[in-house]
Amino acid sequence: MRSHVGTKCSLRLIRGHEAKVISSMNHVDEEFSQSLVFRRLIDQPDAVPIVAQWWFDEWGYLRPDDTLADWVRQIHSTMTCDGIPVHLIAIIGEEVVGTAVLKDHEMRSLYPDRRYWLGSMYVAEQHRGAGIATQLTMKTVEIASSMAIPALHLQTLYSNGGLYIRLG
């Protein structure tokens, strides 16, 4: 993977057909962030069923013919050591507590000109509100910057922008 020192990546929230650039992500709890570890999912494949279960429970209605096993297979088939997508997991101790993915062309039919996306953000319910999604977002932006990706697009189901509006 190429490293591009000094490359900055901005976030662009997509709500409807409106894009908003999000640039300030300074909401970090130092004590909490020291106990949070990030890994690529490919480096901890035993976490795939956990991530698949989360996504199946949260977004399974979007693919009603798919089973949990289909979600597991889909994740395994898209994991890469280098390049995109980047499946990221957040871990506290030995527990996988969240996930996010740096994707290529998330919503191609609606936004063919918007290439890179941060998506599939999920934090286990018992860990919500602790800043994990913020840290996952920041880590994903860091990875995107290291890959010379100038902007990540975001899509949320929340009409108020949810987490991403709070970030900036």
Strand order in the largest sheet: 2-1-7-6-5-4-3
CATH topology description: Aminopeptidase
Count of all domains: 1
Percent helix, as a range, is 25-40%
Largest sheet entry: 7 strands, mixed
Q: CA-to-CA gap between the ends?
A: 29 Å
Task: Please tell me about this protein's structure.
By secondary structure, the protein is of the alpha/beta class. The chain has a single domain, classed as 3-Layer(aba) Sandwich (Aminopeptidase). It contains 5 helices and 7 strands. It has helices spanning 30-35, 48-59, 68-78, 132-146, 162-166, and strands at 10-15, 18-22, 36-40, 86-92, 95-104, 116-123, 151-155. Strands 2-1-7-6-5-4-3 form a 7-stranded mixed β-sheet. It is globular, with a radius of gyration of 15 Å.
Which features characterize this protein?
168 residues, alpha/beta, Aminopeptidase, 7-stranded mixed beta sheet, 5 helices, 7 strands, globular, disordered N terminus
Please give a quick description of this structure:
Helix content is 29%, strand content 27%. By secondary structure, it is an alpha/beta fold.
Helix/strand layout:
Blueprint: E1 10-15, E2 18-22, H1 30-35, E3 36-40, H2 48-59, H3 68-78, E4 86-92, E5 95-104, E6 116-123, H4 132-146, E7 151-155, H5 162-166
Parallel strand pairs: 1-7, 6-7
Antiparallel strand pairs: 1-2, 3-4, 4-5, 5-6
Helix pairs in contact: 2-3
